[in-house]
From TrEMBL, chain A:
Taxonomic classification: Eukaryota, Viridiplantae, Streptophyta, Embryophyta, Tracheophyta
Signal peptide: 1-26
Similarity annotation: Belongs to the SPCS3 family.
Organism (species): Artemisia annua
Key word Oxidoreductase present: no
Protein name: Signal peptidase complex subunit 3
GO biological process, one term: signal peptide processing
GO CC term, one of those recorded: signal peptidase complex
Automatic annotation (TrEMBL), chain B:
Keyword Isomerase in record: no
Gene Ontology CC: one annotated term: signal peptidase complex
Species per Swiss-Prot/TrEMBL record: Artemisia annua
Residues passing through the membrane, by range: 12-32, 38-59
Name of protein: Signal peptidase complex subunit 1
InterPro entries: Spc1/SPCS1
Locations listed in the record: Endoplasmic reticulum membrane
Length: 167, 93
């Protein structure tokens, strides 16, 4: 601590190291949050269902997606990224996941929503396996922190089935 | 600053920063605001800077006793290499 510059340097370095420790603690505090999210999806209508010229099946549907993700937010949450995926099994693949819709929730106030929409991204299969196919609609989310670890989880909703023939 | 002052300044800096860090974390956690935590901590860093970095008089309460130049002339440096107790900043006349 011999001179002004020496003390300034020591203080700045120590202050920034402690800042890193505070941010790590803030991330650890996220583990004490026990969230209780809920969601529900209804498929209102299958708009069309066809076999594309290149051989793959494609379907378009209108859905009602409602969810309450407010309990996911902590003081250390920047935003929550949420997406809805259709998941099903085919003879060729044990698991197919197709993202149908996604969104970013910037704050707790917007985390309880009810959305009436067609699928934002195209529901296309690898092949023509979709006729009469049972599928799950799974709501995945990633809780993105301001500092530290990101948490991801999902809710699986079963019981959906595609029509028997093309429309 | 004197030696005692330097030690006090360093200890004060470390203690103040840790105390402000703890206070900032608790405030932010309880009130649920990450931004508030950063503001409290930034304020603490600024306060610590103002108190420990400039050369305040209270850091110089045990000043070093430099030998008076006229006194040094009366006692010339011995020829033999001997360990001197006090560091002399005396100017050669």
């Amino acid at each position: 601590m011999h001179s002004f510059g020496y003390r300034a340097n020591a203080l700045l370095t120590f202050a920034i190291t402690i800042l890193a420790v505070i941010c790590a603690l803030a991330s650890v505090s996220d583990n004490f949050n026990s969230p209780s999210p809920s969601s529900q999806v209804q498929v209102l209508n299958i708009n069309w269902f066809r076999n594309k010229p290149d051989g793959d099946d494609e379907v378009s549907m209108t859905m009602n997606i409602s969810a309450d993700l407010q309990s996911l937010f902590t003081w250390n949450t920047k935003q929550v990224f949420v997406f809805l995926a259709a998941e099903y099994e085919t003879p060729k693949n044990s698991l197919n996941q197709v993202s149908l819709w996604d969104g970013i929730i910037p704050a707790k106030e917007h985390a309880k929503f009810n959305i009436h929409t067609t699928n934002k991204y195209r529901f296309v299969d690898q092949g023509s396996n979709l006729r009469q196919r049972d599928f799950n609609l799974t709501l995945h989310w990633h809780v993105m922190p301001k500092t530290g670890k990101m948490f991801a989880d999902k809710i699986v909703m079963t019981g959906f089935r595609l029509p028997q023939s093309y429309r | 600053m004197d030696w005692q002052g330097q030690k006090v300044a360093e200890q004060l800096m470390q203690i103040m920063l840790v105390v402000f860090a703890v206070a900032a974390f608790i405030t932010g956690y309880v009130l649920g605001s990450f931004q508030l935590m950063l503001y409290v901590y930034a304020g603490g860093v600024l306060l610590t800077t103002l108190i420990t970095i400039p050369n305040w008089p209270f850091f110089n309460r045990h000043p070093l006793k430099w030998l008076d130049p006229r006194e040094a002339e009366k006692h010339p440096k011995p020829q033999v290499v001997a360990s001197s107790v006090s560091k002399k900043k005396s100017n050669k006349k």
